[in-house]
Amino acid sequence: MRKPRKTRMTRKDLLDIETLSLDEIHLILETAKPFKELFTRSVKKVPPLKGKTVLQLFYEPSTRTRTSFEIAAKRLSADVANFAVAQSSVVKGESILDTVATLQSMKSDFIVIRHSVAGVPELIARNTTASVINAGDGFHAHPTQALLDAYTLREIFPDLAGKKVLIVGDILHSRVARSTSRCLHRLGMNVAVFGAGTLIPSTLPPHLSVFSCFEEALRWEPDVVYLLRLQLERQKANFFPSMREYHHSFGVTRERYRDIVSRGIYVMHPGPVNRGVELIDEVMDYERCLINQQVENGIAVRMAVLYLLNLSVQEKAPDLAPALV
Ligand code: CP
């Protein structure tokens, strides 16, 4: 496993995987390790973000990302404010930039934003001095999901080079597929996708192989099958005849589950899971199902992101060790 050459990042914001250098990706993954070790302590809180404020702006629903950013920020001793869109002046017609300008007057240091429109986090980043973290924007990007996925896989395979991941499902509408495939490819994995022809973009980056049949894709012998949530809220058309049909063709059915277990393939999913659609219930109890580890690692990786972004706007990078006391 390659060690990062850098000891700090030099950026205000985290908006996508593409603009991170490979060294920055390694640095985030390495920095998350000691933060995860904190989780076994009775007191999990450390001081690096004491006096800082993290504002969470979620214009779309979230369980994992919003909660884990909040826990991550609090474990670093930051104060956290959650902006409730439905109870805010957004419903009276206030624009995003006016909302951000208003909130900026309250001097938050970080803005964690999720929005249904691609590019909104970047727009906000250009209009605020706070560090902006993209928590998912439209079809575009979900960088901290990609980083926690990479972290989870590196716990299993310390060197990801040459390992194979098959991403299955709604590739067209998935910001997770975009960010995670890019991140895992940059870490040396072979990445393939499989899904309904209507849910695969007509043009794909050259690093992605495409399969047209689940059984054929499993014969490729992936180390990991990464199932995507069916994004019904983003689909403007009927992309497949029925949920039952989708499960039959693109889900982990009983037969495919047997194949996955016999081949020792790991299973991942970003959540929330549609049971009976992307997978049968039994998969959730499979010993190589990494869904709970992904959620747990989300906190450590988000602590690392907050910690490193905070350092990058400071003059001098102190050692991490004293920060963990
Ligand atoms: N993976 C993910 O983004 O989950 P949430 O929508 O619950 O945040």
Explain this structure:
The model has no long low-confidence stretch (mean pLDDT 92). α1 crosses α10 (291-312) and α2 (64-75) crosses α10 (291-312). The chain is built from 10 helices and 9 strands. The chain has 2 domains: 22-141 and 295-316, Aspartate/ornithine carbamoyltransferase (Rossmann fold, 3-Layer(aba) Sandwich), CATH 3.40.50.1370; 143-292, Rossmann fold, CATH 3.40.50.1370. The longest helix is centred in the C-terminal third of the chain and has 22 residues, at 291-312. By secondary structure, it is α/β, with parallel strands linked by helices. 41% of the residues are buried. Helices cover 36% and strands 14% of the residues. The strands form 2 sheets. It has a 5-stranded parallel sheet with strand order 7-6-5-8-9. Bound molecules: phosphoric acid mono(formamide)ester. Residues 62-65, 136, 145, 270-272 line the site of phosphoric acid mono(formamide)ester.
